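Figure 3 (text version): structure tokens given as input.
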């Protein structure tokens, strides 16, 4: 089978198209023929050596959708999707023709989603789902999502809307504000960090109950924009991993910070998440993904480079 593989880390030149034997599933595993695989920024960072627990040589890729062709009889022929913290890191991932993983690590693909659409959702939606769950977002929550135009941010506002939360989206560019408003979301234009509290206060008197910072750069001003007993969920950090936290202000508000890391979740745990929000697509409660860029797996090296250069296009690799 064709696959992308790297045998060293440090630069994208390490990634190459190779021919590998079709994997054989072990007891309790399935063999999935990949129909589509998502390309996430973490896949690029993996090749660059940002994850010390990755073992080599390795096929990267976390998100996929495909058909079970071997494994437990009741799953053979089923259309499935999956993601998780081992594939692409300590075992071969989805940027290949086939993948093996735990039979409990796949979920049935929602009928309303194509293979390409399903492959685009794993990491963004499990991350957003975890953030809303662990920060307690419900129908009474006033939620601010910073970076609401990104893959995770878009997932967060869509899922929060289903929960009935009062959503405020914060983005960098005027055209992004306009696009979100057309979708029915209240949105603000991010400016100076010291102005965030006043901007949020104009919409949510007393501050936001939950702030989800999908960028990692707005933690200090988020404390000022927080309501008493509020929560700040974060998924990223500056390159050096350090940020100045106004601890006294956080203490006085009784606030808390929740770290969101999708790599803490196994394929089995992710499959349970996929089942829960996957049903919402079939119910028509969540918008179907659009504007996806389909690229042949054999031409995927260029897409890795584009993502590394800052492209926000959602690329789906097709074996």
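Below: residues designed for each position.
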């Amino acid at each position: 089978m064709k696959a992308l593989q790297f045998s060293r880390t440090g630069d994208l030149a390490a990634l190459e198209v190779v021919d590998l034997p079709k994997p054989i599933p072990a007891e309790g595993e399935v063999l999935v023929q990949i129909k589509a695989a998502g390309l996430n920024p973490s896949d690029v960072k993996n090749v660059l050596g940002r994850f010390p627990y990755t073992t080599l040589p390795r096929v990267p890729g976390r998100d996929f959708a495909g058909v079970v062709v071997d494994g437990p009889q009741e799953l053979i022929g089923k259309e499935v999707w999956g993601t998780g913290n081992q594939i692409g890191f300590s075992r071969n991932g989805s940027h290949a023709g086939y993948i093996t993983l735990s039979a409990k690590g796949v979920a049935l693909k929602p009928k309303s989603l194509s293979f390409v659409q399903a492959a685009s959702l794993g990491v963004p939606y499990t991350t957003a789902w975890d953030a809303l769950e662990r920060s307690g977002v419900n129908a009474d929550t006033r939620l601010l999502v910073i970076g609401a135009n990104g893959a995770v941010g878009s997932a967060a506002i869509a899922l929060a809307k289903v929960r009935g939360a009062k959503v405020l989206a914060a983005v960098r560019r005027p055209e992004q504000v306009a696009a979100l408003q057309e979708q029915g979301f209240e949105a603000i234009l991010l400016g100076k960090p010291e102005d965030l509290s006043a901007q949020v206060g104009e919409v949510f008197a007393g501050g936001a109950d939950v702030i989800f910072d999908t960028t990692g750069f707005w933690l200090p001003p988020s404390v000022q924009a927080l309501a008493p007993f509020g929560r700040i969920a974060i998924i990223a950090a500056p390159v050096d991993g350090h940020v100045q936290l106004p601890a006294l202000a956080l203490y006085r508000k009784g606030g808390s910070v929740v770290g969101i890391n999708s790599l803490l979740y196994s394929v089995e745990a992710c499959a349970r998440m996929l089942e829960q929000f996957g049903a919402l697509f079939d119910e028509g409660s969540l918008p179907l993904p659009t504007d996806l860029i389909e690229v042949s797996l054999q031409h995927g090296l260029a897409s890795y480079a584009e993502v590394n250069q800052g492209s926000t296009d959602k690329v789906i690799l097709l074996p």
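DSSP finds ten helices and 15 strands in the chain.
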